[in-house]
User: Fold Malonate decarboxylase acyl carrier protein from Kosakonia oryzendophytica.
Amino acid sequence: MEHITITVPAGRALRGKALAGVVGSGDMEVLFTAGQGQTLTIDITTSVDNSRGRWEALFNRLGLVSTLPAGTLVIHDFGATPGVARIRIEQVFEEVSYA
Assistant:
């Protein structure tokens, strides 16, 4: 198991909390809590060792296509593909944007 913490710039404010996915399904779970400030802190626990570069690349890509929200993102990953990771992350951001 590996624990990774990444902080990236955030440019929009949301309110509330959201959950997407279920780690017990062999997939991944993403929990987002909106916060004040101008950063998004991502706390990842993953079964895939040496994956920091993959996660950093994913959040760099997400930051290019949309403005990331301020807050905390907690990810419990059980080896999900980058595509599934992106879907789960976008799901929590979308859910909270309607709160």
